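Morning!

This is the sequence you dropped in the shared folder:
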Amino acid sequence: MATQIRVEADAANPLDVSRAELWREDRWQEPMRRLRAESPIHYCEDSKFGPYWSVTTYKPIQHIEALPKIFSSSWEYGGITVAGDGVDHLQEGDVPMPMFIAMDPPQHTAQRRTVAPAFGPSETDRMRADTQARTAALIDTLPVGTPFDWVEKVSIELTTDMLAILFDFPWEDRHNLTRWSDALGDIESFSTVEERHARLATAFEMGAAFKQLWDRKAQNPGPHDLISIMLQSDAMKHMSENEFMGNLILLIVGGNDTTRNSMSAYAYGLHSFPEERAKLEANHDPDLAVNAMHEILRWQTPLAHMRRTATEDTELFGHQIKKRDKIALWYASANRDESVFPDGDRIIVDRENARRHLAFGYGIHRCVGARVAELQLTTLISEMQKRRLRVNVLAEPERVNASFVHGYRHMQVELERY
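The structure's back. Tokens below.
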């Protein structure tokens, strides 16, 4: 049997890595390192979100992701974050919102198959020139030698614009997409009745705006946008209101937070490892930019965890998992697993196996929009190289206060030419 660490249950359990302050203060690395070394499959008996298993190393996460019948993603059991408790434990202000990432086959398969072509190789190639033009145009507006907020001026702008294009969302209202993403992706907003009601109001506001867009597209569908694609699919054209909102939340939060926080990690991470930044400044080979993109995704891991729920009693590498146990797959930790990524706390832009990262997940739920996210981040790196621009971070960033979205709220920077 593998070793279990036993810790007295209290408000500051050092091995409860779901605590928001660890992520807000960027202190999650050490408890994860301890868990990887001493108890990579660890039962946390007490947390804000109830008892759960922490899985912190690479191999067990891949194993779990490869067995979706045993380790479910279903919204009915609590979905994809450690915060969910399933339809049997709904509280006032909770409304289940099914989304295809929080479904099991065959429903997951049909809905994912509907939207996947919008993010496939041909569509990504079609977006390439526009992505390059928009990224270049934005960079050319940035001041050199004057402080500004990188998250606000770069990361949010580029990802919000791409989301608006993917949905063919009204351009003048596109910043609502970011606001909705921030509110609806926040797993800390389930704590009180008031917070749950506020979150629900935001969801219905978003749903109403997209219902208007849905109705317009029903009359005049487009060739590429996600709403038109859903409308023309047997698997998604008859979605319930809650399922519609759930899938919108998935596509908006997934499309916004992964790319947005990777773009911020590009600035913060390369500033933190200037010797690696120097490699990119000296070598503008596109292959190195692509590898650096994967390495930044590995190092940041924009979604820190995904959650699964056991559908039956089972054994997991010597541990007895009970039916309905909650299991947190800590991608952020697996991407620092020393057995796979030596010196994993460092960015190494030419790391040989950077592409093996789990930042987009693994198995049937691997991020459907991964190619588009990769395109956006690689384009940013390349366009900054072309202009010989370096980002200097002026102060520690303000980070997201949660253990799900692993990202940045604000980051003051200054550009210089090299």
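Headline: DSSP finds 14 helices and twelve strands in the chain.

More detail when I'm at my desk.
O.
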